[in-house]
Here is the input.
Amino acid sequence: MKKTHRLRTALAVGIVVLVVSAAWLLVPPPRHTAYPPPPTALPASESRAALTRVATAERVNVADLAVPFAPARVATFELLIDGTSFFPRILDDIRAARSSVHIIQYGIRPGAVYDQFGPVLKEKSRQGVAVRVIVDQLGSGLDTGNGALFDDLAASGVQIVRNDPVALDRDGLIGGPRPIDWRLDELAHLDHRKTFIVDGRVAWVGGAGIEDHFANGTFHDIYARVEGEAVEQVQLAFLASFRLLGGPLPTDQAAIDALLPAPADPGQIPTTVLHNTPGAGHLANTDAIERLIDGATRRLDVMCPYSADGGIFERMMAAARRGVHVRYVVPADSNVLATAAALEHWYPDFQAAGVEIWEDPVLPHAKVVLADDRVLIGTTNLDAWALYRNWEIGLLFEDAAIADTVQQQLFEPDIARSQRAQPQTNPVLRAVDWLMALISPLL
Here is the structure.
């Protein structure tokens, strides 16, 4: 009887926990407009002053990071497609680093790709280059078998902090004291960003982790490599997050200034750095995605591996109904069945509205929204976690030549090898699709 009572009690507690968790996830997070940038948005020229405040503050809160960035510029733009193209170039930039290498990665996992990055990061640290890394506990499996990888990096002098979305929130460097942060400001907020910043002068923003499937032909992704004044804002976003998670920053003004060197060429390409700061209502990537779709007049090309948000889908269909040529590239065979089913539920509506759904046989992991002559390249999927709960980053380019380049080099080849999607006809699978669409706010 006692055993049965304990089982019933455990079951009841489990149900309560699940109900409370579901209710918490379904409550719309607080949100204020972060894009278009308000008049108070931070220009690149004020990045040093902002970094000084973050570096010297006794304590940094999430709200301190919810700062919209003013439109900036980049001097160079390069689109690199697939790991065989971008990983060697990223490694070349890291090898050439003279002062700092900063990395935010949702996924860093053992394998052939990490075997290239690990020794280079260790060597740069031994050379006296400051190597700082932000990694996500869930995305990189720190507590499920991969912790030794990061312990080894930390032992080599690499400074690593971790975001703890599903673990007790502890702040500080891996390998050092990590006291509990009772604010629990990381709970259920994944750090989904993928960014490299070298010497504060070169920034890479894209969708790929340091994982083998981005280099062996099974996942298809991109990175944008940029130089110019917008890199200062990407650098600031990294350093503020590093400090929030307990990483140490220099407090000497000269050392702070050295982290944000003035670019040799600020650039002429209009670029806005977008970052989602969950828990503070700052969802600049989400705002920009909605604005791009709503403002499209001629063409709207979207690529995303994981999509489930009905509000975004309604906006895409509205664009098609007003005469915009809308093309949506999605996986033919997704590795996340729940979001794939939720998306498939909408296929009849997409078809009726005139939205072209193209199923790519090579899993398209890139997150890109191209609307007329503007294009957003970043890390934000079109599901509830990415749009409303995760740390995300993106670069919005307002340049016709860049938009044309992305369309010609990314979308056209992908669509050429893809097939038009057709609505599901199996009644059982249709029921599953309906159920997944119903619970899409949890996906």
In short: The chain has two domains: 44-267, 284-442. The CA atoms of residues 60 and 244 lie 5 Å apart. The first strand starts at residue 72 and ends at 74. The mean pLDDT is 94.
